[in-house]
Amino acid sequence: IVKGWSTELSIEVTSLGVQVHGGMGFIEETGAAQYYRDARILPIYEGTTAIQANDLIGRKTVRDGGKVAKSLLAGVAATIGALGAQQGPAFESMKKYLAQGHQSLGAAVDFVVANTKGDPNAVFAGSVPYLKLAGIVLGGWQMARALLVAAQKRDEDPSFYGAKIATAQFYAEHVLPLASALEASIVSAKGGESVLALSEDQF
Q: Which residue is catalytic, options 28, 46, 173, 183?
């Protein structure tokens, strides 16, 4: 997850870096284009994203019947409970959307465990979305943990910890909602069929 999801995200981040520079971002002098090129190789080196995603399913999730995955989900659930004891818009958003992400990842884990042997095409067709879903939800979990600490320490450094609270709220409201869409693409009964629907001569 750290390798696959993070490097995929680096492409998006560095592409946005080019975008916000406008036309100048495409020109070498700004340096933004070099960051984008450097990031583009990362999902290829040391195991492509698909290889990492297949490994996440076969050797990380299925091998123990989802026990490790569910232990991570238990940690997420505990943090959701801690968020409920706090007040404020950042906590409300994080609790709401992290809970939805927790449900989505849990449903995906159950689907993977239940169907890998009987319908491997359906499961592995959603391997990259599964990796991205796990990254988004577990990333949100870490943002939530940081939010709890930032709220406690805000008076020590209002600017720094205030920024932590703001970024956690942004992640909750703009990144975590993607989890439900990824879940749908993974657990769809016909998902594997649509991925493999085209014959070679239809490309």
A: 46
* Per-domain residue ranges of the chain: 1-46, 66-197
14 Cβ neighbours under 8 A, 6+ residues apart = 32, 35, 36, 38, 39, 40
**Residue 200 designated active-site:** no
Look at the pTM and tell me if it is higher than 0.90. Answer: yes
> Which DSSP letter does residue 32 get?
H
Amino acid at 129: P
Compute the distance between CA of residue 98 and CA of residue 101 in angstroms, rounded to an integer: 5
Distance CA 191, CA 124 (A): 10
Residue type, 190: K
- Retrieve residue 107's tokens: 């449903």
The per-residue pLDDT for range 78-116, each reduced to its tens digit, is: 999 999 999 999 999 999 999 999 999 999 999 999 999
